[in-house]
Specification:
Radius of gyration: 25 Å
Strand content: 25-35%
Oligomer: single chain
Helix content: 10-25%
Structural class: alpha+beta
Distance between the termini: 43 Å
Number of helices: 4
Number of domains: 3
Length: 353
């Protein structure tokens, strides 16, 4: 048994099912990353809160601390502001690890979650440029927090003194906290585990359903011009390009524009273009449903939580190809008879160069 997930309730709903007139209750919630979308970078452009040069993972953590962590969150003037912070002791930020590539970024007046997503894409593009640069993931995860409860002890027996209900009488210095809070964490290289050497998912192995494979070039971008300070001919600009993709054919140069005027160091304009260049990579897509099944003569064991899990990298064989794909969604369903069904899904399996 384990805590499968914690969600923030946003949409309770009561309705009557048409087929049998049974009243139904549904609850819709968002995962804890929704907390990141609830804050903006509100400080003025060009200061230490809105423009940084740092390793991607450490920069992410600094942004989260400054916009929502108790005792570190600041207002638009850089003054500690507890009204912008999440509850004391219930939200924390993982310690810095300095595992990602170093980048420069400016993000005044931006949504925190959007900024973190762009920094993630920047790390992915830098990994494309050089495999020594590590890809950085982020997540807000449920995090157990201990309640510090101090009881008044009997001086002779050394045991808590009980009240009329039989409960221990707490000392004034006790701290009561809920059992679960949240922590912002980053992950280098992979969100979960690499299981590509352990198990193969395929239709033939009876542990894969509804696969389909595509090569998608529709939204390709392989050249980004980033323009910085100045007006007209005096405006500074730099191209961020993927020459391999550009040279795939004499028709294949596909351009995009990125405004880099908020970046005060005009020698760092390339960093501004990396997220867009990575987002524009053509997608080799394999969509499939991964099954939670026990072992049988025709099926290798592929049990959720043991052989595969959320964020894991797994091997898939389909359409005459082999893919390494990340499981990014897990569905857990229990029907009216109490039968549980668990399936996983991937998104993009690879990129086309």
């Amino acid at each position: 048994m384990r805590r499968e997930g914690t969600f923030i309730l946003r949409l309770p709903k009561i309705y009557t099912r048409k087929t049998d007139n049974m009243r139904m209750i549904s609850f819709t919630g968002r995962d804890p990353n929704d907390l990141l979308a609830r804050r903006y970078v509100v400080q003025a452009a060009g200061n230490v809160y809105t423009r940084k040069t740092d390793e991607v993972d450490d920069m992410m953590k600094a942004i989260v601390r400054e916009q929502m962590l108790w005792g570190a969150a600041v207002d638009e003037n850089g003054v500690i502001d507890y009204t912008r912070a999440f509850p004391r002791g219930e939200f924390s930020v993982q310690s810095n690890a300095s595992l990602g590539p170093s980048v420069s970024a400016a993000f005044a007046d931006r949504n925190v979650l959007d900024v973190l997503k762009e920094l993630k894409l920047a790390s992915f593009q830098l990994n494309q440029n050089n495999f020594l640069n590590r890809r950085i993931y982020f997540d807000v995860v449920p995090y157990d927090i201990s309640a510090l409860i101090l009881y008044i002890l009997d001086e002779v027996l050394g045991t808590p003194i009980l009240d009329e209900l039989g409960d221990g009488i707490e000392d004034e210095s006790s701290t009561q906290l809920p059992g679960v809070g949240f922590q912002f964490q980053t992950f280098a290289d992979l969100r979960g585990l690499d299981r590509t050497q352990d198990l193969e998912f395929s239709v033939e192995n009876n542990n894969l359903e509804e696969p389909y494979y595509t090569q998608n070039y529709l939204e390709e971008v392989n050249a980004v011009i980033v323009k910085g300070f100045g007006r007209g001919d005096s405006r500074v600009s730099v191209w961020v390009e993927d020459q391999t993709r550009i040279n795939a054919s004499r028709w294949n140069r596909m351009e995009s524009f990125k405004d880099g005027s908020q970046e005060p160091d005009q020698t760092k304009l390339e960093d501004v273009g990396f997220p867009d260049l990575y987002a524009g990579i053509p997608k080799e897509e394999l969509s499939a449903v991964f099954l939670n099944v026990p072992e049988s003569p025709d099926t290798p064991r592929s049990l959720y939580g043991l052989d595969w899990d959320f964020g894991d990298l797994v091997r898939v064989s389909y359409a005459g190809k082999q893919f390494n794909v990340e499981i990014v969604i897990v569905y857990v369903a229990i029907d009216e008879g109490g039968r549980e069904t668990i399936t996983g899904r991937n998104q993009v399996s690879a990129t086309l160069g």
